[in-house]
Structures are given as structure tokens and as C-alpha cells.
Amino acid sequence: xxxxxNLTVNYNNKQEMNALEKVDLTMEKGEIVAVIGASGCGKSxxxxxxxxxxxxxxxxxxxxxxPLNTKKNLIGYIPQGYGLLPWKTVMENCLLPxxxxxxxxxxxxxxxxxxxxxxxxxxxLVKGLLNELEIGNLSKRYPVxxxxxxxxxxxxxxxxxxxxxxLLMDEPFSALDAIMRDEAAEIFLKVWKQNRCSTILVTxxxxxxxxxxxxxxxxxxSPGRIKRIIENPLYxxxxxxxxxxxxxxxxxxxxxxxxxxxx
Length: 263
Known about the structure:
Blueprint: E1 2-10, E2 18-27, E3 32-37, H1 43-50, E4 58-63, E5 66-67, E6 75-78, H2 90-101, H3 111-132, H4 148-160, E7 166-170, H5 178-195, E8 198-203, H6 206-212, E9 215-220, E10 225-231, H7 246-262
Parallel strand pairs: 3-8, 3-9, 6-7, 7-8
Antiparallel strand pairs: 1-2, 1-4, 4-5, 9-10
């Protein structure tokens, strides 16, 4: 479980400049939460706090009742633009989180053996995910040679390469066209169901939020606060747009966002 209580983030130590203010959010293990709102409402800031990128904040962030610790909590992160290193191949990018965290390494007589086992298991997992996403033949390619959709899939594999407890996704489909966005969302859910890690997806797309999020969190801005949390009645519905509740849920979210933008 992820529990956030009274979270406040201030970049400039001035009260009027709070990026987030008094944010409370609870999500169950294995749940997907979609966060949506106008630009500048603190969506990315929220991810950066949970991901350990922003450490200067007020309030409480707990994982399973224990204060957030990125050295112990396994957190996968897909930033805007995917964050792939251009000088590394697809495979090298995908193995990077494990290399950084040194998962499986121990300072004992079995350290070399342990490292080899961990490396082989990780490579096997990564190869399986690359094949699952139909990009297994791209493992030796560099990011610059890939399409937007291919880079998105590589970023997903990298984030899942060490079986994270928590997956953070900052507008992962925004660089794709409408058709590719729908396909990418379907691919993500297909792979996610094999792991079912707790996931927070930041998006500007109402349809993405409805399709992917079990909970939909609508953010208000200046400062960033949670305006409303919707328990999504269309969660898990592949043909959600054909559902009787679709227009109602869509317009509810749209009107909530419009009210924020008018302020």
C-alpha cells in the first residue's frame, strides 16, 4: 500500500510557490491510479517525490506502513521522453536499473556466483519482455534508430526489468499519435497484468485515464491539490467507449478539469 498524507512541496521556500499542498492519497497494492489535471498542477512533482527524485518535502510518504526509502523500495520510473541513454543499446538500457542498484550482489564468498545468477535471470527476463513487446530483434540497436513507439516499449521493459514494487509513468504515451497511443496502452496493460505492481500514471488524456486507471485522481492547480478522486466504473472494460457510463464519466472529468483551468 502507498499512503501519502499532508504532502507539501515548495521549490522556492515561499508559501505562494507551493507545487503541491496538503495532498492525501492512498492506493492499494497492485492498483493503478491515473492522475490527470491541467499543466502545472503538480502531477510530475508527485511522481518525483514517490520516485525519490525530490526529497525536500513536508508530510508523510509510506510504503506498506514504512517511510519511503528508495534504497529498499524497488521503484520503476518512466519519465517524459523515456529517458533512454543514447550511447547505450536497447539491451544495455534495459539492464541499467539492475546495474545501478546492484541487485543480487553480496559482499561474501559467493558474490561472483550471485552476480552471475542475477545477471542471467535479469537478461532472461528482459529478453522475454522484449519478445513479448515484439522488439526482441532490436536489442543491439541504439535509441536514435528507433521509432517513438519502439522507444516507449524499451522504456517499459527497462522499468519492469527488476520486477518493481511500484511503477511510475509520466505521460508515457504523449509522444505517440492517437492510433499508437491506444496500441501502447493495450500493450502496457497486457504486460502489467503479468506483474501487477502498484502503478501511478500521469496523463493529460481523459481516455487514457478511463482505460487504465482503477482510480482517477483529478488535480487542481496553484497550488497543486487533489480536487477529486473517482472510482472508475469502467476499469478493466476493453470496450469502455461503448459502455453506457462512458460519456457520463468522460464529461465529469472534463468539467472538473475545466473548473480548475478557469481559476
